[in-house]
Amino acid sequence: MEKRVILRDVALKxxxxxxxxxxxxxxxxxxxxxxxxxxxRIAQEMGYAPDPMLSALSTYRTQSRPSLxxxxxxxxxxxPTRNGWQHESFRYYRQGAAEALTRHGYRLExxxxxxxGLTAKRAVQILQSRGIRGLLICPLPGTSGHxxxxxxxxxxxTFGYTLLRPxxxxxxxxxxxxxxxxxxxxxxxxxxxxxFVTWEEMSRRLxxxxxxxxxxxxxxxxxxxxxxxxDLKVRNGLFSAHNKEIFFKWFDAHRPDAVIVxxxxxxxxxxxxxxxxxxxxxxxxxGLQESNVDHAGILEPSMEIGxxxxxxxxxxxxxxxxxxxxxxxxxxxxxxxxKGKTVEKRxxxxxxxR
Length: 354
Known about the structure:
Elements: H1 7-14, H2 18-25, H3 33-46, H4 52-64, E1 71-77, H5 88-103, E2 106-112, H6 120-129, E3 134-137, E4 145-146, E5 155-159, E6 163-165, E7 169-173, H7 175-188, E8 194-199, H8 200-205, H9 209-214, E9 230-232, H10 241-254, E10 258-261, H11 265-273, E11 282-288, E12 296-299, H12 302-319, E13 330-333, E14 336-338
Parallel strand pairs: 1-2, 1-3, 3-5, 4-6, 5-7, 7-13, 8-9, 8-10, 10-11, 11-12
Antiparallel strand pairs: 12-14
């Protein structure tokens, strides 16, 4: 029986230490490029491949006992102020990620890119001096996010779609599926005139996922003509008197019995006008957080998104996946329906489009 080639054989032939060979096989940026290329070439020539049984054993040992400290992961933020990133969902992302990383022996450290006097070059130097090779990129302010770092030196995962360049692996909720869940539950509760209100900035950020799902009813619902989507313009002042007027023109013209909208300002507008919610019209959000206990809609799995991102990043580090991926991967997690107090079952289904 032919002897299996092990990593020690590769290290001996390449003339490097076993640790260096192991790092080279994981594309570790601490290994010089010429050494990395040499080790990987020799490994391929010798027919080396990791032992899947040993890998499974390593995973079992990691899961069955507290992990030793392996290093630090950077939580990268780029808001104008140090704590400007702390939206509710982002805090849950960080908390979930920290929990997952702790299980793997890593700790999560905040790193603010807008520190006075900090350049991109200096940021990379500091991260490397702290031994940080893995980065979790917190969602960025605005919708045209760009970060310039020496990405080849890091394994990185981001959240959502605010980082446009570079395109990294990401974890987020499934906006398309969440909208489908909203429509399915509203239909089950007897709503047929379901309207959707969004705004141009959000639509672009989510690549029209909500809009596409709104126009494609779930298989359990008969196809019918949907009410026109109201796409509010940010340039008008998102919650300005002008947009409020536009909203009620749309509302009066199409008479929805349920409105799907992500921001609760619309709920306040409805109540200010004297609309009885949910008796006359239901209010449903496709993007709820834990604090929205009274609202109906989709509760995004923000903690689980964070945990998944942490596990994903550790896997990338273990596999030596550094730099900008040739084919970015997206992990999408479904939210869950929360009935809330802003929707109720109608005595009989309303006449309508679907």
